[in-house]
Design goal:
Elements: E1 10-11, E2 14-15, H1 18-28, E3 33-37, E4 40-44, H2 49-64, E5 72-76, E6 79-81, E7 89-90, E8 94-98, E9 105-107, E10 110-111, E11 116-122, H3 127-140, E12 145-150, E13 155-163, E14 166-173, E15 178-180, E16 190-192, H4 193-199
Parallel strand pairs: 6-10, 11-12
Antiparallel strand pairs: 1-2, 3-4, 5-8, 6-7, 8-11, 9-10, 12-13, 13-14, 15-16
Helix pairs in contact: 2-4
Amino acid sequence: MSGATVEQRFHGDEPVALTAIADEISERHPGYRVEIIGGHLLVSPTRDGAHARVLTRLMRSFIAAGLHDGETEVLQGVGLWLPLEDEDYAIPDLVVVDADIDEHHVENSAYDPVCFRLVLEVTSKNWKNDLKTKVAAYARANIPVYVIVDRKHQRLHVLTDPVGDRYENHRPHAPGELVTLPDSLGAKVTLDVDEILGAGQRAAG
C-alpha cells in the first residue's frame, strides 16, 4: 500500500473540503482506504491476502477472549475522528470499542475517540505511516492502546499511556514471545508473536 498527499482544491472562489475529495476518491476507487491525518490525504490500496489473514487471526483471539460480547465489540474498518485538523480521521485496520459506539458518531462515518479501547494496524508498503504518523495521531486522540503488527521489521509493537503526541510506553516484541495486552481492554488477551507475524508472510511461489 502507498500513501498519497493531496492538496486542497478550489471550485471557483470556494475551497473544496478534503472530506469531499476523500469521498470522491473512495467512489472512484472502491476498496481503497482514504484517511485524512494532519490535513493530508492518505490513500492506501486494497490489502493483500497475508494482511487480511493477520486480521482474521487477531479477530479470533479477541473474540475468543470475549471482547465481542457485552461491553465491547471487535470491528474492522471503522472510522476514528481525530482531534488534529478539522477534517481529520483515520480508519484503523482493527479496533476494540465500547458496545455503545453508535452513540458516539461524529460525522463522515467516524466516531469519537472516547469509545475506542484499542486500535491496531498491520503494516504494508506504507509502514512509515503506521510507525510514525499514526503514533502521534492516536496518542493525541488519547487512544489507550495502539498495537502495530510490523511485517516490515518482524516485530509486534504495543504502545500504551498516551501523553501529548507520543506514548510513554512502547514495547517492541520479537518472534518467540507471548504478549499479554493491557487489562483495560476488558479481558485477558495473549498474542503469540510467531503466529501473528507468520500469518503476515506471503506464501512462496
